[in-house]
Design brief:
alpha/beta, Rossmann fold, Class I SAM-dependent methyltransferase, seven-stranded mixed beta sheet, methyltransferase, globular, 7 strands
């Protein structure tokens, strides 16, 4: 894939994956976080979940990090004057300081669940937890179309497989939640609008990226009962 074309499509989107503020509120509630809890939002993209975290933790602090410079720049433009937010262009494999919860919205798979949880353990406070969303099969027999859609992620499993990888990192599952259709539409609806805006002037490389994104959206709309995202809240044993 042409990465310049990829970021042309994804630049300035409100989200880089499925999610809603309700998912953040669910994680905060089930983790039993105090209103001044410290959160690390790893792989934060353009900072789409920062406002939701500050809404549920008004005295808290969010350290949001991503390796992509323009995502960090976009988030800083919004949050630079808020002392409750720290933005870092940094590798999520190397988190520093202590946090009451590490939030990973659709990004843990870049490291692998077990490796990510092991890496992050040392940065959790006593009783601290990790909440992460992960692609998940919802059926034992996905269609060929659904399998083709996820061919670049051969480690994808069902909920039991995710739990196994959590246990392999020395964590226990506290609670899980399947992301709603609204969470997917929060990502795909703005993406569709941007595809429509870019297509009339797209060159060959960008057209290829736009076609792939449209096919991904169509696959989810047709096969949403076969795959989704599972949000897991896990705690070190």
């Amino acid at each position: 894939m042409d990465m310049k074309a990829f970021f042309t499509l994804h630049r300035d989107l409100p989200r880089e994956g499925p999610g809603t503020p309700e998912d953040v509120a669910w994680a905060a509630q089930h983790a039993g976080l105090a209103s001044n809890a410290r959160i690390a939002d790893v792989g934060c993209g353009p900072g789409s979940d920062i406002a939701a975290w500050l809404a549920v933790l008004p005295q808290g602090h969010v350290t949001a990090l991503d390796t992509t410079a323009h995502y960090i720049a976009a988030a800083r433009a919004i949050w630079a004057d808020d002392p409750r937010v720290t933005m870092l262009q940094a590798d999520m494999a190397r988190i520093h300081n202590k946090h009451d919860l590490i939030w990973s919205a659709g990004s843990a798979y870049f490291l692998g669940i077990t490796k990510a949880l092991k890496n992050w353990r040392k940065t959790l406070t006593s009783g601290g937890m990790v909440a992460f969303s992960e692609p998940c099969w919802l059926t034992l027999d996905p269609s060929d179309e659904a399998r083709q859609n996820w061919q670049d992620y051969p480690a994808m499993s069902d909920a039991a497989g995710i739990a196994t990888r959590i246990a392999a990192a020395g964590y226990e599952v506290i609670a899980t939640r399947q992301l709603s259709d609204a969470a997917w539409e929060a990502y795909y609806t703005p993406l569709e609008a941007r595809i429509s805006m870019l297509r009339p002037t797209a060159d060959a490389a960008l057209t290829e990226v736009l076609d792939a994104a449209e096919a991904e959206i169509a696959c989810w709309r047709s096969h949403r009962d076969e795959f989704g995202y599972l949000l897991s809240l896990a705690r070190p044993k």
